[in-house]
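Hi everyone, sorry if this is the wrong subforum. Our group has a chain we'd like a structural model of before ordering constructs, and none of us has done structure prediction before. Sequence below.
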Amino acid sequence: MNVVLTVVLAVQMISALAMVGLILVQHGKGADMGAAFGSGGSGSLFGASGSANFLSRTTAVLATVFFVSTLMLAYFGTARPAASSGSVLENAALVAPVPAAIAPAAPVSGAAQIPSK
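Answer:
Right subforum, don't worry. Here is the predicted structure as tokens:
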């Protein structure tokens, strides 16, 4: 069970980091207007509109992977073993019984409290 949790957590972290990177690389909606009037280079590695489609689809896939891994972590985090029942306090009382009450110490007389020279 710990191996599954570790793998799902690693997938979630990798998808989150990749999603942040892809979102930072993408253009805003207003960036295309500037390129249309010649104030910037519109050529890119994927073409004029191909990069937006590729990056947005990849971001959507990574968001889905992140969402599914988050749901899996939430499910595994709340799953309880079949043997345990009751609350946490009841299980703790079964494991470590409460010790018997300790009787208070007898009061010490006033003469015993005076330091000697």
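For your construct planning: Helices lie at 2-25, 31-36, 50-78, 88-95. The mean pLDDT is 76.
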